[in-house]
């Protein structure tokens, strides 16, 4: 392997590691989540099993919140950083670019950033995401399935009966313990461990 190739590989691994750390911060919301977990200690909350979800689109329309409490999250550890991203580009896109007409997302909630030839990073702007699952379907069909849906607990009302769970055709929405409120693809254990540490640090400080 040439020095140049090896250097590129190292840079990419470093970049991916940074991405994974960022994913946890974005997906779990750091201290805010620790507060959430504390206030729901011992309780159950609603969450989507990303391996059961069939991307039917109902998460965008059936939630009592508008826009939906369901958002797309990104497991960077699984992403191929593809130029031709099935979650970002329409199948019939004229070119691989950030032009609005090429984007699959109806609200332009996915940000595409060039990293190094031929890799691109995709980041979700949760303020814009409506949980429609179009990108998840594209990523699952043509890529690694790193984009997936989660109920974000800083928005969810934790309804007695989740209105989306009632109509979900895949029974993908169930109750999970509030101290492990996310089912993040590829990050299950790491995410749970980090959240536990945040909670115990807060308890120690009280
Ligand atoms: S309703 Fe169920 S299958 Fe449809 S997008 Fe939501 S979690 Fe996925
Ligand atoms: S395609 Fe839908 S689920 Fe994906 S980021 Fe855009 S609004 Fe969110
Ligand atoms: S529990 Fe309520 S607020 Fe939360 S995702 Fe379901 S319908 Fe939306």
SSE arrangement:
Layout: H1 3-28, H2 31-39, E1 44-48, H3 58-62, E2 70-74, E3 110-116, E4 119-124, H4 134-142, E5 147-151, H5 163-167, E6 173-177, H6 188-205
Antiparallel strand pairs: 1-6, 2-5, 3-4
Helix pairs in contact: 2-6
The structure holds iron/sulfur cluster (3 copies).
The site of one iron/sulfur cluster (SF4) has 16 residues, from helix 3.
3D architecture notes:
- By secondary structure, the protein is α+β, with helices and mostly antiparallel strands.
- The chain has 6 helices and 6 strands.
- Strands 1-6 form a two-stranded antiparallel ribbon.
- Helix 2 (31-39) packs across helix 6.
- The chain is elongated and about 45 Å long.
- 36% of the residues are buried.
- Residues 1-10, 13-27 and 188-206 have low confidence and may be disordered.
Primary descriptors:
206 residues; binds iron/sulfur cluster; 6 helices; elongated; alpha+beta; two-stranded antiparallel sheet; two-stranded antiparallel ribbon
């Amino acid at each position: 392997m040439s020095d140049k190739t090896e250097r590129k590989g190292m840079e990419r691994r470093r970049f991916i590691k940074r991405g994974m750390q960022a994913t946890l911060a974005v997906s779990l919301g750091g201290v805010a989540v620790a507060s959430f977990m504390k206030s729901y200690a011992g309780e159950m909350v609603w969450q989507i099993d990303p391996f059961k979800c069939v991307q039917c689109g109902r998460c965008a329309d059936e939630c009592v919140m508008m826009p939906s409490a369901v958002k797309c999250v990104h497991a960077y550890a699984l992403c191929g950083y593809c130029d031709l991203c099935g979650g970002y580009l329409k199948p019939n896109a004229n070119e691989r670019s950030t032009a609005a007409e090429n984007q699959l997302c109806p609200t332009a909630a996915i940000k595409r950033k060039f990293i190094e030839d031929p890799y691109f990073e995709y980041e979700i702007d949760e303020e814009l995401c409506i949980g429609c699952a179009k990108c998840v379907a594209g990523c699952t069909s043509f890529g690694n399935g790193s984009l997936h849906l989660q109920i974000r607990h800083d928005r969810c009302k934790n309804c007695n009966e989740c209105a989306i769970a009632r109509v979900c055709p895949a029974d993908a929405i169930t109750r999970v313990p509030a101290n492990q409120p996310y089912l993040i693809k590829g990050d299950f254990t790491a995410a749970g461990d980090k959240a536990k540490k945040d909670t115990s640090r807060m308890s120690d400080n009280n």
